[in-house]
Amino acid sequence: MYLNAYEDHYNKRLKIEDFRGNVDHILQCIEECSNQLYLEKVIIKSRKDYVPALMERGFLLEASVPGYFLGGEGYFLCKYKHVNRYNSDKWCEEDSILESVWKKRKQKEVALDPNLTMRVAEAKDAKALSIFYKNVFAIYPVPIEDPNYIKEQIDGNTIFMLLEEKGEIIAAASADMNTTYKNAEITDCATSPSKRKGGYMNSLIRGLEAELVKRQIYCSYSIARALSFGMNAVLHNLDYTYKGRLKNNCYIFDKIEDMNVWSKDLSLMDAQKLAPVAEK
User: Fold this and answer.
1) What is the DSSP letter of 142?
2) What is the average pLDDT value for the chain, to the nearest integer?
3) What stretch of H or E contains 91?
């Protein structure tokens, strides 16, 4: 039996990143781990073969990511320990936002202003990135305001792409790579409030996609705030496909929020046609 479990204290949830073996034994271990009072939600990433057994034990299928497990589809199933964590009073509003996103006409790629620089971040950028993120997010699911955390991510399997104007970061995003299963989550997407009309996130994500293709990672997915028209519109514009919604998934901005899951198969794209990272 193999079980990769993570107690996410900040978001009051138990995350099962991977498992293999006898489902009954796995579920017994999960039940024992989830009996702590602070836990409100259990979320499991599962291969297709295990989905029926998990649903028979009360887990709800909320989203999926094609290609997540070395080309095999990954399924996100959840179980709730508290009714307040299960109930979502914004669900219908989020459905309306999604409908508006789908109706929005896709825009062609626009060249960056020559006065801006887009590049892959280095470890020395950790402090500047932490200050930038702290100014954008009052609350975030991970300690992104900590430069040591960002440095650990950069030194590990995370690519940060940043956009600078006169040496100051005005937008950034990252790709958190799972090198075992060849997938990457596009995350940490942020733009300075005064610069949000520039459409910069499209360019940053295209740059990250190019870096992923270089590393032969073709499963790209993102988990976006369901209440954010802008971020969902960016992913739709970049040909990501909506794959479900994770209810009351994590704390972000000022409260716990539902998160939409989007995915894209980068193997369908020609690496030569992906947007190159600008240099200055």
Assistant:
1) S
2) 93
3) helix 91-103
How many Cβ atoms sit within 10 Å of the Cβ of residue 122?
Answer: 11
Question: What's the angle, vertex CA 271, arms to CA 265 and CA 273, rounded to 5?
Answer: 105
* Beta carbons of 207 and 163 less than 8 angstroms apart: no
Greatest pairwise CA separation for the chain in angstroms = 58
Q: Is the pTM of this model over 0.90?
A: yes
Sheet bearing 72-80, strands edge to edge: 2-8, 13-20, 41-47, 72-80, 60-69, 241-252, 255-265, 219-225, 183-191, 168-178, 158-165, 116-120
Write the pLDDT tens digit of every residue in 51-65.
999 999 999 999 999
**Model confidence over 116-134: pLDDT tens digits?**
999 999 999 999 999 999 9
Asked if CATH classification 1.10.10.10 holds for the domain at 91-273, the reply, yes or no, is: no
For residue 33, what is the enclosing H or E element?
helix 23-33
The gap from C-alpha 207 to its chain's centroid, in whole angstroms, comes to 16
* pLDDT band at residue 108 using 50, 70 and 90 as cut-offs: confident
Taking only the tens place, the pLDDT of each residue in 255-265 is 899 999 999 99
What is the DSSP-derived secondary structure letter of residue 87? -
pLDDT band at 161 (very low <50, low <70, confident <90, very high): very high
Q: What ranges do the domains of the chain cover?
A: 2-86, 91-273
How far CA 66 is from CA of 132, 216, 219, in Å, comes to 33, 16, 7
CATH code matching the domain that covers 2-86, chosen among 3.30.565.10, 3.40.630.30, 3.40.50.720, 3.20.20.480: 3.40.630.30
d(CA 210, CA 255): 33
